[in-house]
């Protein structure tokens, strides 16, 4: 996988009010860097800069040495998988929702993009079947508007299966477990950790205690890195 570098990155939604300032860090190829900090610090904004949802106002972001402004949106989207806090699902089957990212058009999966077998394999790997105790949650289960019928944890498993199927070299977990209760949080965290193995990963987390493992942790406050270091060192200080 490629490495990711932020060099002196700044960003503002409104020129009069800088949100992120002087951010420099590297995610080495295949490693995880976590960004923690209070709400409003700019963590989600930072994550969105990496996939060019917003353009930076200063500095540079490079993937494998290439400035992301020189990369097409299509190849950026192919290279980066995102697991958000609250996965919004289509009013369709679980299979469709898993295969969505692989279809060239939001058409039915299997017709273009991923095959039924590939989607089923991803669903199994994300433990979608054995997660639900009451009724069997099958490949063809309709989930309804906003994933109705699925719990928060189940929705995150759909997002994980989608990411497994896409198999991008770079991952972003944006508070991917923040909306879950603590039992689900631990289960999904373990799942995410195994998905991230060998991938270049940016983890956004509200609390340090929810970061399982990282090459480096950055503490962001009011848009600046106020502290950084390995997990153990920061845990000791905070
Ligand atoms: P965090 O993820 O750490 O909670 P955010 O990146 O969501 O922080 O927000 C950082 C700051 O940017 C906050 O002051 C927030 O109000 C502001 N902000 C976030 N999104 C927007 C937006 N789309 N337009 C204007 N301001 C925004
Ligand atoms: P990509 O579609 O290339 O994966 P995006 O940033 O558009 O990149 O989407 C991130 C993730 O969210 C993808 O896994 C994608 O399948 C999924 N996604 C994108 N748009 C929607 C949508 N409107 N509803 C449900 N899922 C979506």
UniProtKB/TrEMBL annotation:
<protein>
    <submittedName>
        <fullName>ABC transporter-like protein</fullName>
    </submittedName>
</protein>
<feature type="domain" description="ABC transporter">
    <location>
        <begin position="4"/>
        <end position="238"/>
    </location>
</feature>
């Amino acid at each position: 996988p490629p490495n990711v570098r932020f060099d002196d990155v700044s960003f503002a939604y409104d020129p009069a009010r800088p949100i992120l300032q002087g951010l420099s860090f590297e995610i080495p190829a295949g490693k995880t860097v976590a960004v923690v900090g209070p709400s409003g610090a700019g963590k989600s904004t930072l994550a969105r800069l990496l996939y060019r949802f917003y353009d930076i106002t200063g500095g540079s972001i490079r993937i494998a040495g290439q400035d992301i402004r020189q990369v097409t949106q299509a190849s950026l989207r192919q290279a980066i998988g995102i697991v958000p806090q609250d996965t919004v699902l289509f009013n369709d089957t679980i299979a469709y929702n898993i295969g969505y990212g692989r279809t060239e058009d939001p058409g039915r999966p299997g017709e273009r993009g991923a095959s039924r077998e590939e989607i089923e394999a991803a669903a199994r790997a994300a433990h979608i079947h054995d997660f639900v105790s009451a009724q069997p949650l099958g490949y063809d289960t309709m989930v309804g508007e906003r994933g109705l019928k699925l719990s928060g944890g189940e929705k995150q498993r759909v997002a994980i299966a989608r990411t497994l199927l896409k198999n991008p070299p770079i991952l972003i977990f944006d508070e991917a477990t923040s909306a879950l209760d603590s039992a689900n949080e631990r289960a999904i965290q373990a799942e995410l950790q195994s998905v991230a193995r060998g991938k270049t990963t940016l983890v956004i987390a509200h609390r340090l205690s929810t970061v399982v493992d990282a090459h480096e942790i950055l503490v962001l406050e009011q848009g600046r890195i106020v502290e950084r270091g390995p997990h153990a060192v920061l845990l000791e200080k905070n």
